[in-house]
Amino acid sequence: MSSAGTVGRDETVRLFLALRLPDDVLDELDRWGAAHLRDGRRVVREHLHVTLAFLGRQPEEGVARALEALRGASARTAPFPLAPVRWRETRSVGMVVLSDESGDARRLAADLHDRLEASGVYRREKRPWLPHVTVLRFRERPRLDPPLPETGTFVPSDAAAYLSHLHPAGARYEVLESMALGGSIDEPR
């Protein structure tokens, strides 16, 4: 486990939990995005991830509960493969949807959501969780049809709790804590 950020007493922070991507996958997504995503605002390399749960504003106690849930769910989940399978656009983002052939990513998300709900810091979304990497943000849907990035099959590097700091140029993310899947200690990147 590694820790980079801090949360002070009586402070609330915007928090989300996510899978981090290996450096070679980040490099390919960044290269691919520069070549194919010209409409909208590309998500910078350092912010690419697979969101497991967005918790919004949390006090120190809520952050502690979320970290405990993430530690528990991550420890019970062995590393698993993901791979790009399709492009998808919503009203405000473009994403690379990932396959989860083993079902382990969905089981991790479900276990994490159960733990977060039980701790009182999260309410599960009505739509099913979808493994994806948001790569583009926009105000008007560009209706792109890019080829898929050539990452091949990959294994997420670890799971992390992120602080999201709002900024006029877009949110900035800071890793609060990260942990390896399967319960081993993760060294800082």
Keywords:
189 residues; alpha+beta; Cyclic Phosphodiesterase, Chain: A; five-stranded antiparallel β-sheet; 3 helices
Characterization of this structure:
The chain is α+β, with helices and mostly antiparallel strands and 189 residues long. It has one domain (2-6, 13-179): Cyclic phosphodiesterase (Cyclic Phosphodiesterase, Chain: A), CATH 3.90.1140.10. Helix content is 24%, strand content 31%. The protein has 3 helices and 9 strands, in the order ββαββαββαβββ. The strands form 2 sheets. It has a 5-stranded antiparallel sheet with strand order 1-9-8-2-4, with helices on one face. It has a 4-stranded antiparallel sheet with strand order 3-7-6-5. A hairpin with a 6-residue loop joins β8 and β9 (172-179). α2 (60-75) runs antiparallel to α3 (104-119). The longest helix is centred in the middle third of the chain and has 16 residues, at 60-75.
Mean pLDDT: 91
Biggest pleated-sheet summary: 5 strands, antiparallel
Binned, the helix content reads 10-25%
CATH superfamily: Cyclic phosphodiesterase
Low-confidence stretches: 185-189
CATH top level class name? Alpha Beta
How many discrete domains?
1
Strand residues, percent: 25-35%
Question: How far from one another are the termini?
Answer: 11 Å
Pattern of helices and strands: EEHEEHEEHEEE
Which second-level CATH architecture applies? Alpha-Beta Complex
Total strands: 9
CATH fold name: Cyclic Phosphodiesterase, Chain: A
Based on Cα principal axes, name the global outline. globular
